[in-house]
Task: structure prediction
Amino acid sequence: MSAGSVSADSFARESRAVLDGITTSARDDVRRAAGLIADCVRADGVVQAFGTGHSQALVLEIAGRAGGLVPTNRLSIADLVLYGGERPEVLADPLQERESGVAARIYALVEPRPEDLFVIVSNSGVNNVVVEMALHAKERGHRVLAVTSLAHTRAVPASHPSGRKLADVADVVLDNAAPRGDALLELPGGGAVCALSTLTGVMLVQMAVAESAALLLAAGVRPPVYVSANVPGGFEGNLVLEERYAGRIRRTAS
Result:
């Protein structure tokens, strides 16, 4: 790609091409992901979403947003401080996500039920904490849905002691189609700019949510979804829906 190809128009063009591609290529995986989500909701489970770094943007897309499912939870390393009583200084360590045992501590703080579904987001799919969370969840009977870049994860070595990557552990994998390193537009002389994984990840997740809503409706179940708190009655109506999952979902300031 030439230097002249690095522009707003080129990113819009190239990213749209990837989005158009995954709406077709990921169709079967989206349906399988939707089945996991619908099964979780029907079983009175909670969708436990976890990611680190910029993957938290996609976790926010899943948990606690207008138009999204109510039985959703956002898990993060910050939970160690917010709910686990650890000193805030632990969050200053940028390598915290690579430490052994972190995922197990985060998992214990939320006390999931077996019917809960874990959605784990990681572009590389190799950081220790995401693989550990997937393994920990599977060992305790949960289904695991992964959102990751297969191109990236196949191009880098595993870092977890098991030798496994997130995609190896998950029941269903949604491939965000991001390139190795995530950035889409190549720069002259090397390197690249403009990350893609959040854009494509949002598309995949929302497709899966839409399909899961269709499955629930077909089964005679009204999907429990949030209304924007910024419309009249939205906040109050959401509180009523949240009561069903009291003590199982967290809604903190963000």
